[in-house]
Amino acid sequence: MKFLHTADIHLGYQQYGVKERFNDFSRVFLHIVDQAVLRQVDFVLLAGDLFEKRTVDPMAMRVAVEGLRKLRDADIPTLAVEGNHEKAYYRDQYSWIEFLDALGYLRLLNPRFEDGHAVLEPYDDDGGAYADLVDTRVYGIKYYGASTGKVFRLFTESVCEDGRDGVGFAILMAHAGLEGQMDRYSGTLAANDLAPLREAIDYLALGHIHKPYEVDGWIYNPGAPETCSLEEVQWPDRGYYVVDVDPDGEPGHQAELVVPPRRPFHCLRLEVDALTEPEAVYDAVSGLIRREGKKIARDPTPVVDLTLYGVLPFNRFDLDLDYVKSQLESAWNPVVTRVRNMTTPAEFEMAVDMEASRPELERSILRELLERDARFRPDAEAWTQVALDVKRLALSGAPSEVLVDRLRHARAELAAPAGEEV
What we know:
The chain is an alpha/beta fold. The chain has ten helices and 21 strands.
């Protein structure tokens, strides 16, 4: 038996407001559908977030129906769970993923909960918690946000009570993340939430977190097949799993992570600390283009993102970002060109917390001043403490040699900037 596991397709996402990026998300979904048919899988798992938004764009729905119909025509069932991006706004409303279930394009799985108990019923016209296919049982749990841990505990109690009679291979598909994989994610699970499931579930098919990961040979998260944010560029091995199952084998399954064709992203960075005039920045961009030129030129119409960082030694309004953008466009003809000025101007207004105490304000301002200087930036916090110590000593009436000794000691500890005398 063979199945395909994917998640976080995000159909309808018009990233950066560019129509071609909308098309990219459609293309990757249809490519995965074609691969499911070509590889003759027995079924497909969609572990949430097929769509980018709850209010689905009509063209995105058209692409979804086209792909799901192709799977249906090939006698490949599609099993799905609802993700956080596509759930209805209110509990009693109908979501578009439920609409696709009602039309027979997919089977939407989720248990019912009654009296503090998860009710695990087979899928029928009214829905259900699981579907049986090819000697395999597939359970599903939709996105539950902050209640995810509690829902999994209730599900675990019920599935362990039911046992595995007649089930050769058991899969649980859920739109949930694993703690420790990414910060700032809701709907995540701790390892102790999952450990009791190991005896009942052979393959845990996750979605939600766009970073790919595998844990202990039974927890699998394929990541987002297209790039939804710059953060995801660091994980090139994202896509979908093709899983071969042999319950009598050792191990009982083999999961291959497949990377689909996707729009290439190139994230560039340029430090401006030593660039004392706009022309120097433009020359530095030209140098960056020469260094990166061949590598990026291999990719037709990529997304190019350039971040300028550091302390800008001249007035930021003298820097023509449109000209910098035109330099990149002339070199590589990107489908999207982004130039982000993340520099700190030399003459900036201090950002202070008006609720902070005087000592907190003083420390914050000193640190911010030191961070403006590239020489002191790596140890800005430590040099801030040195400055405060010197001030305290001076106010207490300490002799000048004590102040000098404190500075000499700091210089020895922090390795004062090269060529600088204390």
